[in-house]
Amino acid sequence: MGGMSQGVLRKYREYLPVGDGTPMITLGEGDTPLVRSNKLSQELGCSELYFKLEGCNPTGSFKDRGMVLAVAKALEEGSQGIICASTGNTSASAAAYGARVEIPATVLVPQGDVAIGKLAQARAHGARILAINGNFDQALSLARAVAEMYPLTLVNSVNPNRLEGQKTAAFEIVDELGDAPDLLCIPVGNAGNITSYWRGFVEYHAAERAKTLPKMMGFQAQGAAPIVLGQPVPDPTTVASAIRIGNPASWEGATKARDESGGIIDTVSDDEILDAYRLMAAGEGIFCEPASAAGVAGLIKLHRNGLELEGQSVVCIITGSGLKDPEFAVKFIKSEVREVSPNLEAVEAALLMSVSGGRKG
Ligand SMILES: *Cc1c(COP(=O)(O)O)cnc(C)c1O
User: Fold this and answer.
1) Quick count: other Cβ atoms within 10 Å of Cβ 20?
2) I want to staple 143 with a disulfide (CB 3.0 to 4.6 A). Which of 71, 85, 193, 327 is the partner?
3) Nearest residue CA, atom 13 of ligand 1?
4) How many angstroms separate the alpha carbon of residue 42 from the centre of ligand 1?
5) What is the mean pLDDT of residues 169-193?
6) Which residues line ligand 1 (CB under 6 A)?
């Protein structure tokens, strides 16, 4: 077993609802890097700022942590297939794990609203894709209805196994830092993830693996901020498609995480999300999804509004990989690509326009 990825089911078995009859499947999910910030930590005066790179999961987002358990339990229960609604990442993950264990996956996505990389994944893994002419919230009610009528397991985060699996990310943070951080910054969409993290921290604290609990700092996009507004948003809008959700399934879990931890759930504007997205890529070397940048944008906003971060340990959850949505990057990151003739003079001329310092020797 040396060096082989054990996956979250094996690694955290004692904290998960797995028994002798649960197939221990894995695609190598979990065990994602916790990387210290270089640039933002200086700007914010926060010497202990970390990014948890959930884009390093097998399908490029944290959804795999919960999907592996949801699919294992579906197999254990003799389910004939899995179904979900998705803004993209849940469908990519369901499609991959479905292919892995050879059960059919059906995914309902809002038509025209899913990043190309995510759709490509669902197609490559052979999922049945239904493009719903509506938004995510409508797709989710339809998926719920179909799962009631057919012997299919719903693998959205309303499936309790999804939330159980996702809490393993909180365990990893404590295992690595030796304790919980002071603040955990996280984007909030359907609100399953903030619910899971809080559960993970609370369980580890109860098991005396952590001495402290973090304040949970959740961030919704301004045009898709039902929890902040205190009411559903019928037509949510934001550039960050993974959190474009107007009626979160885990609403109560999110407010409980906020209130029990003494944290907040606040909004960030699309401009703030874009600034954080660019800063992560160009300043930290971390290419994340627009939605992932919402947590970072939130931290920057808190600092701007006067929150003192010196001496605080902070973890920002980078929920997914920027490679999911290359079209977004090309559209929103202005960078010049210069055409150059294939000869040394032309390359040198182009270099001299952009490189400081002269030639070697
Ligand atoms: C699903 C997702 C979110 C939102 O997580 P919720 O559990 O729905 O709140 C954020 N970022 C990315 C990249 C996602 O895939």
Assistant:
1) 5
2) 85
3) 320
4) 27
5) 98
6) 61, 63, 89, 157, 187-193, 242-243, 289, 291-292, 319-320
